[in-house]
From TrEMBL:
The lineage of its organism: Bacteria, Bacillati, Bacillota, Bacilli, Bacillales. It holds the Pfam family LytR_cpsA_psr. This is LytR family transcriptional regulator. PANTHER family: POLYISOPRENYL-TEICHOIC ACID--PEPTIDOGLYCAN TEICHOIC ACID TRANSFERASE TAGU. Belongs to the LytR/CpsA/Psr (LCP) family. InterPro entries: LytR/CpsA/Psr_CW_biosynth, LytR_CpsA_psr. It comes from the Bacteria. It comes from Paenibacillus anaericanus. Residues 55-200 form the Cell envelope-related transcriptional attenuator domain.
Length: 297
């Protein structure tokens, strides 16, 4: 009620700045009803640094079930070898964004996964630094110091065991690249969980307009502003959203001197099975296929 009375109109106006439908596509409106059907969204984490082109370091096929307050995140490692739709070549999947922005990234992920995508949301990592600082930091499960030290990489150290990590440390956490691509992808899932946990733990509705304002030009989506607001209320009224994550693991391979990840076919098949299961509005909560069920096999 507080949000509707004091902040809803302000937030909708701010979100209008981030509304960026893909040219040639008709954005799907979310039908606001007693029950909102599951929908899919491509989450893109964009890392653009000085003197470098934009690249999508994070690609996540997500399925959101608003009525259950549940979200499925299927992470695709950035070096995954696949067809780049619209470029007539095979390359690392994260190159799709560099070649053709959100449209090419969306088309390429749809082709790789084999299922349609209703929406996309792209966030530049730089915009998250201010958000994390505004929340007073976030909790991250860092048990050993993380040191980025290779000569061609940005140098930084993240100390282990801190109760909270500030915006720059959180940014370094998602950027760290001196272990496997799979681990890096899992860190992105951990970060998203930590950010949601912190926002809900603080329970400060009044911060929402400021947080969206901080994202500014660093956030783009083709979901309409009023739809975002209605969905957020539906999901949060169901309690803390439960986020389930799965990563499509790849086997490293060099081709013509370039390193690629060749997706594990069993992982890809299991990801597709989960997407179909979660996307079906008739699937009962207790029937949802969870990522851990594969680990138990």
């Amino acid at each position: 009620m507080t949000f509707d009375l004091f902040f809803s109109g302000q937030v909708e106006k701010q979100l209008e700045k981030s509304y960026a439908p893909i040219e040639g596509e008709v954005a799907k409106p979310v039908v606001v009803a007693k029950e909102i059907d599951p929908f899919s969204m491509l989450l893109l984490g964009i890392d653009q640094r000085e003197n470098e082109p934009s690249r999508s370091d994070t690609l996540i096929y997500s399925v959101v079930r608003p009525q259950d307050s549940k979200v499925l995140l299927i992470s695709i490692p950035r070096d995954t070898y696949t067809e780049i739709v619209g470029k007539d070549k095979e390359d690392k999947i994260n190159h799709a964004y560099a070649y053709g922005g959100e449209k090419m990234a969306k088309d390429t992920v749809k082709n790789f996964i084999g299922y349609d995508l209703d929406y996309y949301a792209a966030i530049n990592f730089e915009g998250l630094r201010e958000v994390v600082d505004a929340l007073g930091g976030i909790e991250l499960p860092i048990t050993e110091d993380i040191v980025n030290k290779e000569k061609d990489h940005e140098k930084f150290t993240i100390k282990a065991g801190k109760p909270l990590y500030d915006g720059q440390e959180a940014l370094n956490y998602v950027r760290y690249r001196e272990d496997s691509g799979v681990n890096r992808t899992k860190r992105h899932q951990v970060f998203l969980n930590a950010l949601v946990d912190r926002m809900l733990k603080l329970n400060q509705v009044s911060k929402i307009p400021d947080l969206i304002d901080m994202l500014g030009d660093n956030f783009k989506t083709d979901m309409q502003p009023n739809s975002i607001i209605e969905l957020a209320k539906t999901i949060l009224l169901g309690g803390r959203p439960e986020i389930s994550g799965f990563t499509i693991v790849g086997e490293g391979k060099r081709m013509n001197g370039v390193y690629y990840d060749i997706a594990n076919e069993e992982d890809l098949a299991f990801a597709k099975q989960m997407i179909e299961n979660w996307s079906n509005p008739d699937t009962k909560t207790e029937e949802l296929i969870k990522p851990e069920s594969r680990e138990q096999e």
